[in-house]
Design a protein that fits this description.
380 residues, alpha/beta, Rossmann fold, Hypothetical protein af1432, 2 domains
Amino acid sequence: MRVLLFGGSFDPPHRGHAALLSAAAERVAPDLILVVPAFKAPLKVGHSAPAADRLRMVRLGLLPSLPRRWRRRTRVETCELLSRRRIYTVQTLARLHAAHPDWELHFVAGSDAASSWKHWRSPQLLLRLCRWWTARRPGTPARRLPSHFHVIRRPMPDISSTGLRADLAAGLDRSGALHPDVAAHIARRKLYGAGLEEALRAGLKPSRFAHTMAVRCLAEALARRWGEAPRRAALAALLHDCGRLMRKRGQARHARARRLKVPLLAEVIRRQPGLLHAYVGEDLARRRFGCGDEAVLRAVRSHTLGAPGMSLLERILYVADAVSEDRDHPKAGPLRRLAFRDLDAAFAACLSAKLRHALERGGWLHPLSVDLWNRLCARP
């Protein structure tokens, strides 16, 4: 019996998943299709939606999106989900091979997963257990796909779960990429930060919410100028002050209770508790609003104090927060214009302005910001 497996996080399942599985089924002509949602995918840091929701969305949207011919032969294999632990693909395939030695196994993977083949566990055993299929999503270089993957020559939608999550959290309409029942489930369960903007509007002071929207506008514009994903910049901007949904005392309690890795936590609480909101915001972004994008989370964490080796996204958010349109200090306008000509110069100028402002007020300088300034000065 010929069996086609399709494993993944499905976080969330989208029309690209359905297109890939349908295309693979046409090539393989399986007698049985097994969709295998992971409880914890080995190559992912974490999942934005709980396992139960991801399973529900697979049943609501992925299966009904398949042509009837293949839908009749498809079932959801819940062994990995029910294990409630990280299961490697090689373990699932070995178990199926042992239980059904007469099965001819085929596995279809998205081009991103196929491109990361060198990180899969026991690749040689995987090659012996089954045949491998993929299709190239727009923008995936052919050289990134391992030679043992049979490439299905069919156009695939340019949809990724990572991009979908960012768009949904940023309040963008991505209903065209999702089965209607999946979109309804996401809205009903408020997954992927759906309703993030409404939560910020309700929980932040009006001036703080206006600042957040101004930062979003500038961060998106800077992202387009410097080659960062605008939707990722928009999400980071929306989340950057979500820590301020808590009052300062609440932030201190949260930081202690969650054991957040705030440099010099006790000193910050005593001298400058306002700095906590970036670290609390990172935690809330992950736990309350379901952000699983580590680049976005790092940008939220570093937008006040900075950090060594800041990424493009981190520098964009840092500058956008410092000189957004709602900022009325005299240097805001010139620094905004500079940011579109030379982002690094604007970043250094924003850091300098923050340090100078603290010194003029007799305030405490966190060593992390001082170290960052010294690193910038040491550059040739």
